[in-house]
Write a structure and sequence with these properties.
The protein has one helix and seven strands, in the order βββββββα. It has 124 residues and is of the alpha+beta class.
Length: 124
């Protein structure tokens, strides 16, 4: 049974579709310390798409227009996912800060694991 992660933020974002017309579609978004989950039509009851922070490289291409902030999430396999949010909502900052926190914690874990392996090798 998967435990529910603590929600940092929940709300609405618009995601650009991959279709030919590239229409903007509203999504209910749930940000946790480990992932960003997207739900169609604003319902968590529907099956959502989870973007785990382990698969995200960066938040990029932040651009502000009069009404919206546009930004792109780049995955480790170089897929780009475009989003926009109302100017004052600062979703891009929330996602970026959660991603940086995740990456820092992972780097510390990796460093500690390497140290432990080196120490264990040194004792043999």
């Amino acid at each position: 049974m998967k435990m529910q992660a603590e929600v940092i933020r929940e709300g609405e974002l618009e995601k650009r579709s991959d279709s030919l017309f590239q229409l903007w579609k509203k999504k209910l978004v749930v940000l946790t310390k480990d992932s960003l989950s997207l739900f169609p039509d604003g319902h968590k009851r529907a099956k959502g798409k989870e973007l785990g922070f382990g698969s995200i490289l960066k938040v990029d291409c932040v651009e502000r227009t009069g009404k919206y902030i546009y930004f792109t999430i780049v995955t480790k396999d170089r897929k780009e996912i475009d989003f926009r949010c109302p100017d004052q909502s600062c979703w891009n900052a929330s996602i970026t800060m959660a991603l940086i926190d995740f990456q820092n914690k992972r780097a510390i874990q990796d460093f500690k694991s390497r140290q432990e392996m080196e120490q264990a090798a040194g004792y043999q």
